[in-house]
Design a protein that fits this description.
Layout: H1 2-15, E1 28-32, E2 39-43, E3 49-53, H2 56-83, H3 87-90, H4 97-108, H5 110-119, H6 123-141, H7 150-155, H8 164-179, H9 182-191, H10 196-202, E4 228-233, E5 236-241
Antiparallel strand pairs: 1-5, 2-3, 4-5
Helix pairs in contact: 1-8, 2-6, 2-8, 5-8
Length: about 240
């Protein structure tokens, strides 16, 4: 269970590239209740966040906060996909595609499976998921309707607070994608007859922004795009983003 929870956090935070043109969070300061000590979130030149904390709960809180900064609507889209709630915000879609997706994932029972996993989770796993959810919701609650990601504004709906079970249900989408690849396999086979150069452009395997999984970030901290420092004020902690 713990591996599943950590896998989701890592995938959402690191595996999916930032949208084109998206910039790192700008300097600001907020007060946050629910953390115990100093949290530092540093972003390198690629916008990838590095979270440092003095304890595990604050670490996952910081990761939830940073993930929400980058992908709040994407997170909501994934959990709605897994829970069968797409049509609620997207409508039926062309040829009822959203409704068909909702029916499929409700038939699979992803939401019920996630709730059952949470109920059987160890105290440590539950604490991790709850800390991550608090971080997501701390960032989301700092936004007003005009500063919410544009997708929420265009579709005219609000972000529902993230829950520990949401982190588990999104894993089901990754599992489904990894176990149902026949469409991609057929597409790649169809493109195998193309000249090598054209095929490489359509199906790139490497990118200039690729990073090593093992190694060190060579960018100096002084050039990092963002940094969060935390100091206690009464029962709150002030979070400063630089």
């Amino acid at each position: 269970m713990r591996r599943v929870a950590v896998l989701f956090l890592a995938l959402v935070c690191l595996a999916i590239p930032l949208n084109s043109g998206q910039t790192a969070p700008q300097q600001n300061a907020v007060q946050i209740k629910g953390i115990k000590d100093r949290i530092t979130i540093r972003r390198d030149e690629r916008g990838i966040p590095y979270v440092e904390a003095q304890n595990d709960e604050d670490l996952f809180f910081g990761q939830g906060y940073a993930t929400a900064q980058d992908r709040l609507w994407q997170m909501d889209l994934f959990r709605r996909t897994a829970r069968g709630e797409l049509a609620e915000v997207l409508g039926a879609g062309p040829n009822n595609i959203a409704i068909d997706q909702d029916k499929l994932h409700r038939t699979y029972g992803f939401a019920q499976a996630a709730e059952a996993e949470l109920a059987n989770a160890s105290p440590q796993t539950r604490a991790t998921l709850e800390a991550y959810a608090r971080g997501v919701n701390a960032y989301a609650s700092s936004l007003d309707p005009k500063s919410m990601p544009p997708e929420f504004q265009i579709l005219q709906y609000s972000f529902r607070p993230w829950t520990p079970a949401d982190s588990l249900v999104v894993v089901k989408i990754f599992a489904e994608a990894l176990s149902d690849t026949w469409r991609l396999d057929i597409m790649r086979q169809a493109m195998s007859v193309l000249p090598t150069e054209k095929r490489a452009q359509l199906l790139p395997e490497i990118s200039p922004i690729d990073v090593l999984v093992v190694g060190k970030d060579t960018q100096s901290k002084a050039k990092s795009a963002a940094r969060i420092g935390v100091r206690q004020i009464d029962k709150f902690y002030a979070v400063e983003i630089f």
